[in-house]
Design brief:
alpha+beta, four-stranded antiparallel β-sheet, 5 helices, 23% helix, elongated
Length: 247
């Protein structure tokens, strides 16, 4: 599943479509995609894992689910869920994704301050929301899009290793310093992810995700296929990642 940094990369690649009129629409989506025919793209935006094209009176929301992908001015060897054509032969092809329309003002649909890669990101609000759910596991908190929009499973595993916190630690048991580190690194690691992915070295920088040995202390990593309420894969080191629990 593409995480927030990957969606930012798509947003930047497609930024030139802003101000352009959609001349051709096709795809196997069951939504009323023809409504975009002849409409001008007012803005290219993103929120967390959502890629957004803003039109007058409505917006297109794309979520890439588990296996979605995109191509700009290229095609894959499969039918696109949605294809938008522009002048000069330019085309945006979107595959294996969820297509949805959001009516009215896009700002009414999103809290931009919850997006870890947005300039409006509000760390204080994130800490406040975390303190309101003390029983939540650290792993689940990081995957909560209302708290950390854009954070996915890779970022979750890497952030918890970076700050030395066990994924099953209760949020309410974290010392204030660790809670602050969790919030800070959710954003900072996301930008590291963004830079590494653009440089094609993301996987080379994984410390624990899909790995078997902790690079800090050589301990064999623990692994669980389904962890927490989110039931996502978890990789962690029992030596250097402390389990915080209420007494």
């Amino acid at each position: 599943m593409p995480e927030g940094p990957s969606i930012v990369i798509l947003r930047e690649a497609a930024a030139g479509l802003a101000g352009r009129k959609v001349l051709r629409v096709s795809g196997n989506s069951t939504q009323d995609i023809a409504r975009m025919q002849g409409q001008k793209v007012l803005a290219v935006r993103s929120w967390g894992k959502h890629f957004l094209l803003e039109f007058k009176g409505f917006s297109l929301r794309i979520h890439f689910l588990l296996f979605g992908s995109w191509r700009l001015n290229e095609e894959r060897d499969r039918p696109p869920r949605l294809s938008l054509g522009f002048s000069k032969g330019e085309v945006l092809n979107l595959y294996a994704c969820s297509v949805r329309f959001l009516e009215g003002d896009l700002d009414a649909h999103y809290d931009w301050s919850a997006d870890v890669m947005n300039a409006a990101w509000d760390a204080k609000a994130a800490r406040r929301k975390l303190r309101a759910q003390p029983a939540t596991l650290a792993a689940d908190a990081l995957l909560d899009q209302d708290l950390f929009a854009g954070v996915g499973n890779i970022i979750k595993n890497e952030v918890l290793h970076r700050i030395r916190v066990h994924p099953e630690s209760a949020v309410g048991a974290l010392p204030p310093r660790k809670l602050g580190e969790l919030v800070t690194q959710a954003r900072e690691y996301s930008f590291d992810f963004y830079r590494w992915k653009k440089d094609f070295v993301l996987k080379k920088n994984y410390q624990v995700h899909t790995k078997s040995t902790c690079p800090r202390d050589g301990t064999r990593l623990s692994y669980r296929k389904h962890l927490g309420k989110a039931q996502r894969r978890a990789f962690w080191c029992d030596t250097c990642q402390r389990l915080y629990q209420d007494a």
